[in-house]
Amino acid sequence: MREDLTPPDLETWQRLFEDEGYWQQSPDAHYMELQRLADDLLGQGAIDLEQWQDLKARAEQSHKDSPAVNVAREVDDPEA
């Protein structure tokens, strides 16, 4: 069995959530991947419904914040 086929865990979700580069470069893809991982975690029984709802809410809030944060960073450092 290949190692890259191991099921995700909460640490995987958290690492992705904290990946600012991915979040800044592709907020929609970042959001969709967070949602997919949360769904996978729930589906495999690694988290319960309440934890799933929390992960989904955190992903949604992060996605909503991404345009404002990206614009603020561009204004602060237009050369970035």
Chain-wise SSE layout:
Layout: H1 10-17, H2 20-25, H3 27-43, H4 49-76
Helix pairs in contact: 1-3, 3-4
> What count of helical segments does DSSP give?
4
What is the distance, rounded to the nearest whole angstrom, between the alpha carbons of the first and last residues?
42 Å
- Elements, N to C (H/E): HHHH
As residue ranges, the low-confidence spans are: none
Q: In percent, how helical is the residue content? A: over 70%
Largest sheet: none
Which features characterize this protein?
single chain, 80 residues, mainly alpha, 0% strand
Task: Kindly describe this structure.
- By secondary structure, the chain is mainly alpha-helical.
- The protein has one domain.
- The chain has helices at residues 10-17, 20-25, 27-43, 49-76.
- Helix 1 (10-17) runs antiparallel to helix 3 and helix 3 packs antiparallel against helix 4 (49-76).
- The model has no long low-confidence stretch (mean pLDDT 83).
